[in-house]
Amino acid sequence: MKMLFVILVCISLNAIAQAQENPGFISIDCGAPNGYHDDNLDIYYTIDTGFVESGKNMQISSKYIDRVPMQQLMNLRCFPNGTRNCYTLRPTQGKSKRYLIRASFFYGNYDTLSQTPTFDLYIDVNYWITVKDPSNYTYEEIIYTTSRDYIQVCLVNRGSGVPFISALELRTLDNSTYDTSAGALQTSWRYNIGSKTTYRHPQDDYDRIWEGQSFNWTTITNKTNVDSLRSTNNAYKVPLEVLMTGQQSLDNISSSLKLFWISSEPTYKWYLFFHFAEFQVLRSGQLRRFRVYVNDNKLITTVTPEYLKPVTVSTFPFDGTVLNFSITSVTSQSSLPPFLNAVEWFRSIDLPHSTTDLNDGTSSAK
Ligand SMILES: *[C@@H]1O[C@H](CO)[C@@H](O)[C@H](O)[C@H]1NC(C)=O
Ligand SMILES: *[C@@H]1O[C@H](CO)[C@@H](O)[C@H](O)[C@H]1NC(C)=O
Ligand SMILES: *[C@@H]1O[C@H](CO)[C@@H](O)[C@H](O)[C@H]1NC(C)=O
Ligand SMILES: *[C@@H]1O[C@H](CO)[C@@H](O)[C@H](O)[C@H]1NC(C)=O
Ligand SMILES: *[C@@H]1O[C@H](CO)[C@@H](O)[C@H](O)[C@H]1NC(C)=O
Ligand SMILES: *[C@@H]1O[C@H](CO)[C@@H](O)[C@H](O)[C@H]1NC(C)=O
Ligand SMILES: *[C@@H]1O[C@H](CO)[C@@H](O)[C@H](O)[C@H]1NC(C)=O
């Protein structure tokens, strides 16, 4: 009887643990000795078992242990053997869904060699990106749709040190979001404008990382009624904490919000997603209307945000060496300056090889 009781308790505890997992998430703390709940992020992290068959678990140098910003960076899994070592993710949502996949790295002198490696990441059979100098915490993030019911993230040795990974996360997105002509989207920046605070889960259902960022513009905020945004938010589900701060142009309504950035590769195709939420009650006769342009004069659209109704504007793909956007009032109609609450920059990743063209084992590293 006692024996039976113990078994029953184990089963029910297991069932609770299952139920508490974050739906649509796969969260692997690579190299960790056990799974756990990260209370700050409200995310359950699991160990590598079942996702990868090679490599070994290591811990970063004790010198860095107390200084890491999150527990996921304390351990890592390294791959001293073989050119190509892969994690296989099997999302319960299955194929033909859009996923955000994030791989995090922190070297932390785990091998006491004080030599950070450089290595390639592949997503299924295609080259994704090269991880360079992960001596500081860094991550690479891709938005990816697959036609198979599993996704492989592979670390490829290119002869410049042993590849390793600290954390690997998959988040299921709403299929209507980030719909572009690109094979996949690599995140370059994601800003929570007019704020010093960085948000991710639990504020963000999709666990995107919104970095607090202020430019030389005027910060505006209105925390009253922010809860109403919850019911009117769109499929992008930008967190309310991110939407309720923003910045508007500095001087007067005829000055615009402008930013430029430099591309390391002129052939990159860029896609921007702007998020706007009007949180000022407009008096009768007042109107806020602005136009979004990229690369000086290429019009994306005209926006007239409605009170507490978030709008997302995405660009067509564009390229260049010096790139820019501007948000400019339609001065003949608008009585208020243009503003911006959040913005995301992506560049396209080409996926020349189809997963059905090649067997997993046969693709080779460049
Ligand atoms: C790497 O290969 C060597 C020799 O086959 C083996 O002894 C070692 O356990 C392997 N290490 C890992 C991490 O797979
Ligand atoms: C999701 O979107 C992708 C890409 O647009 C499409 O191929 C797929 O059929 C969609 N899946 C579902 C379940 O709607
Ligand atoms: C991170 O980068 C900064 C500046 O680039 C450097 O001073 C610092 O030592 C780096 N931290 C680690 C842990 O390598
Ligand atoms: C911000 O922009 C204004 C107007 O363009 C300029 O006068 C001011 O010096 C700028 N401030 C900073 C800190 O760059
Ligand atoms: C508005 O700002 C622009 C750009 O700073 C300036 O050129 C223009 O003179 C200003 N207009 C008024 C009416 O202040
Ligand atoms: C802030 O929001 C409240 C509630 O919607 C509104 O009454 C107030 O006018 C807003 N404040 C500003 C400065 O827009
Ligand atoms: C904006 O982008 C265009 C196209 O790349 C470029 O010609 C122009 O110089 C840029 N302007 C600014 C202000 O950065």
From TrEMBL:
<feature type="domain" description="Malectin-like">
    <location>
        <begin position="28"/>
        <end position="347"/>
    </location>
</feature>
<feature type="signal peptide">
    <location>
        <begin position="1"/>
        <end position="19"/>
    </location>
</feature>
<dbReference type="InterPro" id="IPR024788">
    <property type="entry name" value="Malectin-like_Carb-bd_dom"/>
</dbReference>
<keyword id="KW-0732">Signal</keyword>
<dbReference type="GO" id="GO:0016020">
    <property type="term" value="C:membrane"/>
</dbReference>
<protein>
    <recommendedName>
        <fullName>Malectin-like domain-containing protein</fullName>
    </recommendedName>
</protein>
<keyword id="KW-0812">Transmembrane</keyword>
<dbReference type="Pfam" id="PF12819">
    <property type="entry name" value="Malectin_like"/>
</dbReference>
<keyword id="KW-0472">Membrane</keyword>
<keyword id="KW-1133">Transmembrane helix</keyword>
